[in-house]
Specification:
- The complex is a heterodimer.
- By secondary structure, chain A is mostly helical.
- Chain A has one domain.
- Chain A is built from 14 helices and seven strands.
- In chain A, the strands form three sheets. A three-stranded antiparallel beta sheet of chain A has the order 5-6-7, with no helix packed on it.
- The longest helix of chain A has 36 residues.
- By secondary structure, chain B is of the alpha+beta class.
- The longest helix of chain B is centred in the N-terminal third of the chain and has 23 residues.
- Chain B has two domains: 44 residues, no CATH class; 102 residues, Alpha-Beta Plaits.
- Helix content of chain B is 27%, strand content 14%.
- The chains are: A mainly alpha, B alpha+beta.
- Chains A and B meet through α1 of A and α2 of B.
């Protein structure tokens, strides 16, 4: 293997992991502060370092310190090994999923083409679903190993929810695969740069609006966030599957949830909001109605990466705002939405999309 | 549970109502964010130890006993407040003064602030306007015995910043 490509891969892996963990850390602050601003409150601002409060940003550090200092209590009745293993699954799964998400166009360094995604798999979409399903092992193992009713019910709910909504996810994304004719995420993003009728960017949300409306709730359900946070419904189940966790092991679940938010936002941006595509921007500059503006390749790639991050951050804001807007579903409502609404509409979407593509070709 | 409200097709499509709810929360978010950005207060909360809520003029805080001009208590130990107290937290011991045989005076006057419900009935009941309530509500203490205020503490109460503040009218 060429050493430049080797270094590029290491840099990309480190970049993605550092960015994701930073996002997760900042999201703990965003969660508290955004809820406060939405609900006309002030939010966390008590930690003071040399007279600076920095809008409560120091709470990220103090939260982590608190987690590490707290007693890591393992009850006597749990299965020690599974109890220890469970928090790793959601974290590893969430970090792995992001490997296939392209955050920029191919960049050319010293004559070598380097794709700006950790792994440019031909079957990236299938890899993505495979790893996002592995995340549910965390709740299952946590609930099962805890030997406790609340945790067990939480785990059961997590599995039922995951199984129901993964079908909706898979079905709704088939439309995207049909439209862009590929399972490779970088190809999907590449094709979203094309124009519809000469001026509308061919983003997923424009070609597949129904799929977006089905994919979004299903993905939030997969992430187990409000309004789909039944596995940890504190009013019924204490804390759901991580009832028996304390200290940093509980923190690992918590952090994994925030990494998952970032990943979910990244996946949706990639599939439906054009990924790193800036409208009318191509490898050599802007093109619109025959006019063009030449921009050096390095600047174009920079704009694309910034575009991806901007879309990503805005969508994370959107997901967080959803979390602070909608109340939790009842269990039967959750199942009805998954099986009776999302699944049939997803199937309808496939049929209609296939017909339209057949007619166009 | 049965609801009288029937969902129409508009509500059952679900997304319009979701968008409406989302519009309300995000409006709050952006309006408050704009307020914070321009240096205004975007919250209804008081950051308590630093900023305190304005007190109403009829606020009922810690009790105090009124002194006469000759530094003796105004109280005549008539037991009106003790009898009237719903929390039964006032304990008066009456005494006689030979020089002024027409009135009693309180030898001891204890209020258990820990039991007090701050209803103000003692102030209402007092025929001599001898017991009043200040604006001070910082009365937390480390043990309950310190919360039993005796005669001296009630007579020689310290005026706090809360009392000096102009009450909200």
């Amino acid at each position: 293997m060429d050493w430049i490509i080797f270094i590029a891969i290491i840099v990309k892996v480190l970049f993605v992991i550092v960015v994701l963990l930073t996002f997760a850390a900042v999201l703990t602050w965003v969660e508290r502060k955004q809820s406060a601003v939405t609900q006309d409150r002030v939010g966390a601002n008590r930690v003071e370092v040399f007279g600076f409060r920095a809008l409560g940003m120091f709470h990220i550090i103090t939260d982590a310190m608190k987690m590490f200092i707290k007693e890591d209590y393992v009850p006597g009745h749990v299965n020690k090994m599974l109890h220890f293993l469970a928090p790793f699954f959601p974290m590893v799964a969430a970090l792995s999923v992001f490997a296939v998400i392209p955050f920029g166009d191919d960049i050319v360094i010293a004559g070598r083409t380097i794709p700006l995604a950790v792994a440019n798999l031909d079957s990236g979409l299938i890899y993505l679903f495979a790893f996002s399903s592995i995340a549910v092992f965390g709740p299952v193992l946590a609930g099962w190993s805890s030997h406790e009713k609340y945790a067990m019910i939480g785990a059961m709910r997590a599995v039922a929810q995951s199984v129901s909504y993964e079908i909706a996810i898979g079905v709704s994304v088939v439309g995207i695969v049909l439209v862009y004719n590929s399972l490779d995420l970088s190809v999907i993003v590449q094709k979203q740069g094309e124009l519809l009728f000469g001026f509308i960017p061919k983003w997923g949300i424009i070609t597949q609006p129904l799929a977006f409306l089905l994919f979004l709730p299903a993905m939030i359900a997969e992430n187990k966030r409000t309004p789909f946070d039944l596995p940890e419904g504190e009013s019924e189940l204490v804390a759901g599957y991580f009832t028996e966790y304390s200290g940093m092991r509980w923190g690992a679940f918590f952090l994994a949830e925030f990494v998952e938010i970032a990943v979910v936002a990244g996946v949706i941006v990639t599939l439906f909001l054009g990924g790193w595509q800036f409208p009318y921007l191509y490898a050599d500059g802007f093109h619109l109605f025959g006019y063009m503006l030449n921009i050096p390749h390095a600047v174009v790639v920079l704009i694309e990466v910034v575009t991806f991050f901007a879309k990503w951050i805005i969508f994370i804001w959107f997901l967080q705002q959803i979390r602070w807007t909608f109340p939790r579903f009842r269990y039967d409502q959750l199942m009805r939405l998954g099986w009776k609404n999302l699944l049939p509409l997803g199937l309808l979407n496939i049929v209609v999309t296939a017909f339209v593509i057949l007619i166009i070709n | 549970m049965k609801y009288d409200f029937k969902f129409g097709w508009w509500e059952r499509t679900y997304y319009p109502e979701l968008i409406r709810g989302f519009y309300i929360t995000s409006r709050h978010f952006f309006v408050n964010l704009a307020k914070w950005m321009t240096g205004k207060n975007g919250a209804y909360t008081y950051q308590y130890p630093e900023e305190k809520r304005p007190i109403s003029p009829n606020f009922r805080g810690k009790h105090y006993l009124v002194l006469k001009d000759d530094n003796s208590p105004q109280c005549v130990a008539c037991y009106m407040c003790q009898t009237n107290c719903p929390a039964q937290c006032i304990d008066i011991v009456a005494g006689e003064d030979e020089s002024r045989p027409e009135e009693k005076y309180p030898v001891a006057f204890k209020i258990d602030i820990g039991r007090c419900i701050f209803c103000g009935f003692c102030v209402e009941a007092c025929p001599k306007d001898a017991i009043r309530m200040s604006y001070d509500y910082h009365i937390a203490d480390y043990n309950t015995t310190d919360l039993v205020y005796d005669r001296e503490k009630l007579l020689h109460w310290v005026e706090t910043d809360l009392d000096k503040e102009q009450p909200l009218l």
